């Protein structure tokens, strides 16, 4: 459904994304994890065409993404960036209405179908009582749900999320992650997201892709990716791996002296 083929990008003299090959299948939830500066958000921006790779290709539904029109891409792929403070003077509903832009003809009004999809996005994200509130008056978790509602109002096949739980308390983090899982399971949206919380990534993802220094080091199901060798080689820590109720999670430990990384 979505592929990167030998994608490379030089961000600066000290950082390069090098020959990244990644395949995302329809219906998957895939999390990108790794240390700060490993290239996770850069890869997401390359896939969403916010920046252009220096070499390699991003392929969406069998077609190179750089050869397609922006509106055509937006009907299939929605990107939720890390920071979204630039539209705080809108109401929740006004923000979500922007999600229908890719489906509209120039200067046309919202159609009945547009209105129905906007209402669907409001209901799915549980924003009914907030739809006429100003964004700046909402809590961080409520604002994040509003931005997710904007993204899903595009009715994309693929949802790209860059650190969707950043700056949220644990209750709102879980609220957002449960919503992401619902969008995947109930509405069939494929999800590729950057997460810092590795335990959350393991709990909510079908696959985890671990990056370091601009390359992919591990790619697989959480039960296989979460291992002491991965934490030692990628994060320079030791870890205790646990399994409970079908979930795999870890506890960080100080790296033992003499362990090679």
From TrEMBL:
Name of this protein: ABC transporter ATP-binding protein
Sequence ranges assigned to domain ABC transporter in this UniProt record: 2-238
PANTHER family hit by this protein: FERRICHROME TRANSPORT ATP-BINDING PROTEIN FHUC, IRON(3+)-HYDROXAMATE IMPORT ATP-BINDING PROTEIN FHUC
MF annotations from Gene Ontology: ATP binding
Lineage, top ranks: Bacteria, Bacillati, Bacillota, Bacilli, Bacillales
Subcellular location(s) of the protein: Cell membrane
Keywords: ATP-binding, Cell membrane, Ion transport, Iron, Iron transport, Membrane, Nucleotide-binding, Transport
Primary location recorded for the protein, binned into one broad class: membrane
Membrane topology listed for this record: Peripheral membrane protein
InterPro entries: AAA+_ATPase, ABC_transporter-like_ATP-bd, ABC_transporter-like_CS, P-loop_NTPase, Siderophore_ABC-ATPase
Keyword Transport recorded: yes
Family annotation (PROSITE patterns): ABC_TRANSPORTER_1, ABC_TRANSPORTER_2
Signal peptide: none
Superkingdom of source: Bacteria
Organism from which the protein derives: Virgibacillus halodenitrificans (Bacillus halodenitrificans)
CDD domains for this protein: ABC_Iron-Siderophores_B12_Hemin
């Amino acid at each position: 459904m979505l592929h990167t083929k030998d994608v490379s990008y030089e961000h600066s003299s000290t950082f390069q994304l090098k020959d990244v090959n990644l395949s995302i299948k329809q219906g998957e939830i895939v999390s990108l994890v790794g240390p700060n500066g490993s290239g996770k958000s850069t890869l997401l921006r390359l896939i969403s065409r916010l920046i252009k790779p220096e070499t390699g290709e991003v392929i969406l539904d069998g077609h190179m993404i750089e050869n397609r029109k922006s509106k055509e891409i937006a009907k299939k792929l929605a990107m939720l960036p890390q920071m979204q403070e630039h539209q705080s003077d809108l109401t929740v509903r006004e923000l979500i209405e922007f999600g229908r832009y890719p489906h509209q003809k120039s200067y046309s009004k919202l159609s009945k179908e547009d209105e129905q999809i906007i209402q669907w996005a409001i209901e799915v994200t549980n924003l009914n009582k907030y739809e006429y509130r100003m964004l700046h008056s909402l809590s961080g978790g409520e604002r994040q749900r509003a931005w997710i509602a904007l993204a899903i109002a595009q009715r994309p096949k693929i949802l790209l999320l860059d650190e969707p739980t950043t700056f949220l308390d644990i209750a709102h983090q879980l609220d957002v992650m449960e919503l992401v899982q619902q969008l995947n399971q109930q509405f069939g949206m494929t999800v590729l997201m950057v997460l810092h919380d590795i335990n959350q990534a393991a709990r909510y993802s079908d696959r985890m892709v671990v990056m370091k220094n601009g390359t992919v080091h591990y790619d697989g199901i959480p039960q296989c990716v979460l291992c002491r060798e991965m934490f030692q080689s990628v994060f320079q820590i030791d870890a205790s791996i646990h399994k409970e109720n079908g979930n795999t999670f870890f506890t960080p430990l100080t790296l033992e002296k003499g362990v090679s990384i």
